[in-house]
């Protein structure tokens, strides 16, 4: 099983309501470039599901990704709250996943699964190959 962890793109800096922060124009432009390249690479993987955090900036990131992959996405509350076991319990063994979420959750999940520390910048994509039964994986490099 493969899990692609994607951090949302650059968002507004206003912290009045973290839930409703939107992507900036620059953030959207960068995501379009990244996801256009990713879609060419990713088209080889057949069975996958896309899930996003319910926060605006993550949903907007997933919307852009969905345009390029031509696939709908779902919303998972746990992608905004962080319990890795809940995420893994929700997975089907023969599927692959793209999860759009936030920091520091993504770097924490990757560390829990792979024992590797990673820097997760806005709009970045990290791939973990996971043995779901053992709940352990290895971090694979993506070059886009």
Automatic annotation (TrEMBL):
Its EC number is 3.1.3.-. One of its GO terms (molecular function) is hydrolase activity. It comes from the Bacteria. InterPro entries: His_Pase_superF_clade-1, His_PPase_superfam. The keyword Hydrolase applies. The keyword Membrane does not apply. Keywords: Hydrolase. This is Phosphohistidine phosphatase.
């Amino acid at each position: 099983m493969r899990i692609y962890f994607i951090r949302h793109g650059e968002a507004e800096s206003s912290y009045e309501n973290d839930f409703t922060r939107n992507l900036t124009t620059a953030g959207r432009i960068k995501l379009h470039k990244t996801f256009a390249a990713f879609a060419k690479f990713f088209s080889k993987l057949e069975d996958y599901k896309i899930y996003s955090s319910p926060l605006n900036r993550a949903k907007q990131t997933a919307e852009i990704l969905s345009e390029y992959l031509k696939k709908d996405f779902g919303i998972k509350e746990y992608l905004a709250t962080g319990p890795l076991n809940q995420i893994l319990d929700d997975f089907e063994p023969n599927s692959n996943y793209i999860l759009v979420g936030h920091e520091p959750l993504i770097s924490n999940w990757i560390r829990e699964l792979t024992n590797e520390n990673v820097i997760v910048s806005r709009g970045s994509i990290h791939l973990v190959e996971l043995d779901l039964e053992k709940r352990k994986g290895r971090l694979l490099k993506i070059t886009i």
